[in-house]
């Protein structure tokens, strides 16, 4: 008889479909980095709930997540960045680009966004609500949400230019991206301000229906 050599344990496949979607395109090293980011973020939200956003320091968050402050800053530029950034953009871009090329862009966004929101509500509702409530309550976060790389507008512009096969978005693309970004952000903020009592997926769907109608009846 020959003795069998132990084999390296394979990482457990995530049972959360949202986590599976985030991890799917990543290497093992990138998945480990993703989980570190998520641990830091999870501890931060816990501390924000316990002692308030302004009273929570980066050093406290790092200690709770069992990382050094320098490691925190490798993952997040600032405490604000921790709240304003997320891991969903690459998955959203992939999902939008996978839609039929001749499908109206608003239809693609409506299908992808409502599907993602339903999954988030099933598996990450409390974290999503905590994040959006912080944005509604902390002025600096609400302002930062509309600036630079934190603006959802950049995501839609990325997809629009790739679908069109161009390097720079034209005016029509910029207006489209700005309208979708503003409308979906408004829906998220309304949901958070109401304590998450509304059906967010239905609210997002309603938002896209209004955009698709060209604001008819408003």
What does this protein structure show overall?
The chain is an all-alpha fold and 218 residues long. It folds into two domains: 27-78, Orthogonal Bundle (Arc Repressor Mutant, subunit A), CATH 1.10.10.60; 86-218, Tetracycline Repressor, domain 2, CATH 1.10.357.10. It has helices spanning 17-23, 28-51, 58-64, 69-75, 79-84, 89-97, 105-123, 125-137, 139-144, 152-164, 171-193, 200-212. It is globular and about 50 Å long. The chain starts with 16 loop residues before the first helix and ends in a 6-residue tail after the last helix.
Strand composition percent? under 5%
* CA distance, first residue to last residue: 79 Å
* Unreliable stretches covering 5 or more consecutive residues: 1-11
Number of helices: 12
Q: Report helical residue fraction.
A: 55-70%
Task: Please compute the radius of gyration using only Cα atoms.
Answer: 19 Å
Q: Structural class of the helix and strand makeup?
A: mainly alpha
CATH architecture of the largest domain: Orthogonal Bundle
Apparent shape: globular
Give a topology summary:
Layout: H1 17-23, H2 28-51, H3 58-64, H4 69-75, H5 79-84, H6 89-97, H7 105-123, H8 125-137, H9 139-144, H10 152-164, H11 171-193, H12 200-212
Helix pairs in contact: 2-3, 6-10, 7-12, 8-11, 10-11, 11-12
